[in-house]
Amino acid sequence: MNDVPAKSKAESYGRDDDESGIGRERLDEIAGRCERIEQEVGRIFIGPSSTIENLVVALLAGGHILLEGVPGVAKTTLCRTFAATLGAEFRRIQFTPDLLPADITGTYVPDLSNNEFHLRKGPVFANVLLGDEINRAPAKTQSALLEAMQERQVTIEGTTHALPRPFMVLATQNPVEQQGVYSLPEAQLDRFLLKAQVDYPSEEGELEVLKTHRQSPKAPETVVTAGEVVEMVRLVRQVHVSEEMMHYVLGLTRGTRQDRRTLLGASPRASLGLMRAAQARALMQGRDYVIPDDIRSLARSVLAHRILVDPDAELDGVTGAQVVKRVVETVRYD
What we know:
disordered N terminus; 46% helix; five-stranded parallel β-sheet; Rossmann fold; two-stranded antiparallel ribbon; Helicase, Ruva Protein, domain 3; alpha/beta; 334 residues; 15% strand; globular
């Protein structure tokens, strides 16, 4: 945590006196709800709290998240539990090599009673969509989610249909399996606001898994409704970002483009994503202004998966996360 006193933070990064912000009571209410979501998920998912925090950040920022981890680390359990706390419609798609785009979006089918066609909606028409093992489907099928993730709509046989609000994609993938998987194209990766690594639990955490496995835990409680989520997403846009903080965001994203080890650095969409994610984190913590810690803590999750490393550097073991780490260490904000 940043060790600057709260008062000086507000004076340095907050609004001008004549600007209206989010009321203190509302900020405390939202921070409390976010904390309850994290507690409910953490009661069932035994893993790092930062992973759960990233889920809530993506939710409030109106973005999507990619969870990467080896099989058996409870990625699907994490997503199901998180969706259960929202009181929103949840659907799951098990991605396979033979999955078709229409299996995701839906299709028009004939109604023999009146000789007309009606839409049979696919699972994408939900508030929270889990794309399990998304890298098992070919690029054509993966691309069926592009319009949905970016525009919150799908086009089926020339007709555009709006998706329900909120709409959030939680996708999982296995980073080690090579056969029967398809790498996500850069355009698809860029649609994910955050990418989180789900690693093996600690020894203490795995022991807790063994202890609690004998009996099913109590189902997670619903903390917020879909309508309340939409309102919180709207309030995120009202979180103040000073011009200094915007320059700090730009310094980080542009630093990834200037690194000699990268072919492609983070895009302007990444800059917008980092700023929006920082606003969401600020709101989670009961603030209506962004501080440097909000940006620093999310830089890796927002930027690393959008960076294309030079092949020679990649052979030397350089990753997007290492590029971001160096940029964060180089671009200072005091």
